[in-house]
Amino acid sequence: MGAFLKFNQGVMKMSLPWRFWVIVVVGANVAVPLFFLGSTEAQIVLLAYVASTAVMTLLTGLTGFTRLLGIGHVFWIPMIIWLWIRLDQIPSDDAFGVWIRVLIALNTVCLLIDAVDLVRYLAGEREEKA
Predict the structure, then answer these.
(1) What is the distance in angstroms between the CA of the first residue and the CA of the last residue of the chain?
(2) CA atoms within 13 Å, Cβ hemisphere of 52
């Protein structure tokens, strides 16, 4: 429980633009899928988010709120690939199709940010963020 609290405290200490980014990403990965819960895609997105959050909470307990946390999003890589492959089967002109496409874009940007953070962590920036 301590690691979960420390993780959330780290998020709350982030600058306003980063907190807004987190809210958008969480909304796209948690809130929106609830509207499409009958779809396999929404279930996979929620599962990947829960798994990522669990890993990031564990990492917070081990290393603090550091640049290493983004590695928890590793579950998004196969999810994004799977969703991308399925795009030809998902209409782009309804709310579900728009959400899938926005989710792929948001999560891809998040993975790019995570990659930069991981490189910086490996280069020695290991202090806690925020």
Answers:
(1) 20
(2) 26
How many CB atoms lie under 10 A from the CB of residue 30? 14
pLDDT digits (tens, 9 = 90+) for 23-79: 999 999 999 999 999 999 999 999 999 999 999 999 999 999 999 999 999 999 999
Concatenated DSSP letters of 14-68: S-HHHHHHHHHHHIIIIIGGGGGTTSHHHHHHHHHHHHHHHHHHHHHHHH-S-GG
Burial annotation 61-95 (CB, 10 A radius, 16+ → b, else e): eeebbbbbbbbbbebbeebbeebeeeeeebeeeee
Torsions phi, psi for 91 (to 5 deg)? -60, 145
DSSP 90-123: S-SSSHHHHHHHHHHHHHHHHHHHHHHHHHHHHT
Tokens of 3: 């690691």
